[in-house]
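Reviewers of the previous submission asked for a worked example of the structure-prediction workflow described in the proposal, so we include one complete record here. The input consisted solely of the amino acid sequence. No template or homolog information was supplied to the procedure at any stage.
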Amino acid sequence: MVELIEAHGKEADDTFAQKIAQCEEINPPEIEAATWELLKKANRLRNAIAHKIDGPEVEQAMKNMRKAYAALSAQSAKDEQAMTDVQLALSAFTHCGSFIVVATENKKQGN
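From that input alone, the workflow returned the following structure tokens.
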């Protein structure tokens, strides 16, 4: 996210959530709103786990992330049902990260 922000001539903020907001504000055409929502939910899960590995906060954050993942597409909704929590979290961050990389590279190449 820092590279995407810097490719747009801006300085990255401090927190992960602030960086998400900065990237979303840039509004790269490669990244749909549903991907930003998924990244926000994944970050909330990450934050919940950082404070306590299990419990109601983590459980709710996981449910919210599953819902956001399922909202990406019909295929994602189907895939989400078959994934464990760990698989879904990995897939969510991979999905979001890959779009951010593409948007960053396209900006750097002037596309």
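The chain has a mean pLDDT of 95. We consider this example representative of the routine output the project will generate in years two and three.
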